[in-house]
Design a protein that fits this description.
Elements (H helix, E strand, L loop, with lengths): L25 H16 L4 E3 L9 E4 L12 E11 L3 E6 L9 E6 L2 E6 L5 E6 L1 H14 L10 H20 L1
Antiparallel strand pairs: 1-2, 2-3, 3-6, 4-5, 6-7
Bound molecules: ligand K2U and zinc ion.
The site of zinc ion has 5 residues, from helix 2.
């Protein structure tokens, strides 16, 4: 199990459309383990494989926030939204690839998602609340989309400039 470095925006690998996973083999399972470990270490409540530079359609989530509650680590392979509610909800989103930047993003309040789990079984579940926001945020990562893509050009440019500066400073240390 390895904690892997998370790519920081701007990075072309974060803009690529990730490839579907054909077979859930030992390599996919090992990657899913590393993604969960990296996500909890960040800490975050979601992570997508492209954030580790791996262009494969795998996301991990655990949006259980109540202290002391049982964690619910989830691995979704080839996740697909099959239904979205008319009702929308707004959440102040962040991103582990855009550290310390937050902005309000409006999305469908509830979504139905189908995916393959690490045992190769097809799963289907309806998500609401933070789980819904998170799964949509992660599936966007698989399509090369970041939450700042929902913002106006000025705010997006300001955040991108801050990240370019941050990466320059990190490169110097
Ligand atoms: O994909 C990621 O970068 C992890 C995201 C997932 C996420 C973003 C916005 C809203 C929900 C989930 C986060 O950085 S994980 C950190 C976090 C935790 C709680 C609320 C917002 C962000
Ligand atoms: Zn993100």
């Amino acid at each position: 199990m390895t904690i892997r470095p998370i790519l920081i925006h701007p990075d072309p690998r974060l803009k690529k459309v990730a490839d579907p996973v054909d077979t859930v083999d030992a390599e996919v399972r090992a990657l899913a383990e590393d993604m969960l470990e990296t996500m909890y270490d960040a800490p975050g409540i979601g992570l997508a494989a492209p954030q580790l530079g791996i262009t494969r359609r795998i996301i991990t989530m655990d949006c259980v926030k109540e202290e002391g509650a049982e964690p619910r680590p989830m691995v979704l392979i080839n996740p697909r939204i099959t239904w979205a509610s008319e009702e929308r909800s707004t959440y102040e989103e962040g991103c582990l690839s855009i550290p310390d930047q937050y902005a309000e993003v409006e999305r469908p309040a509830e979504v139905e998602v189908t995916w393959m789990d690490v045992d190769g079984q097809t799963q289907q579940e309806r998500f609401d609340g933070l789980w819904s926001t998170c799964v949509q945020h992660e599936i966007d990562h698989l399509d090369g989309k970041l939450f700042i893509d929902y913002l106006g050009p000025m705010k997006r440019q300001m955040i991108t400039r801050k990240m370019v500066k941050l990466k320059r400073e990190r490169a110097r240390t």
